[in-house]
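Here's what a typical entry looks like (DUF1844 domain-containing protein):
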Amino acid sequence: MSSTDETPAGFDAPVGNDQATRDIAEVAAVQVITTAAVHLMSAAAVKCGLAEGDDAEELKDLDEARKLITALAALVVASAPDIGNQHARSLRDGLRSLQLAFREASVIPDAPGEGPGEKYTGSVV
């Protein structure tokens, strides 16, 4: 993509946009990390069947939820030393809640330590 007016899938700002580069440069790393974690949490919650509304069961997809929770666990564990206890604690709490929700939603239970993200966090049961 050599042109500055082309936008890769999933991105709001055109490639090479100086204003977008300046804007992102002003955002603290902890904010970027926590924002990414919140997006992963929200998506995982929906995929675990925790969405509000009549279609929550239709949106449930535990295979997708497992992937999202594992990615979230990796992000939280890897970034915790750098983002500080205040931020890491709330992310860990949300992660654990999702791991437990996944276990509750799953028809075939994973062995302790084998659930989504548990290779990073340890068993939640």
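Residues 31 and 83 are 9 Å apart (CA to CA).

More examples are in the samples folder.
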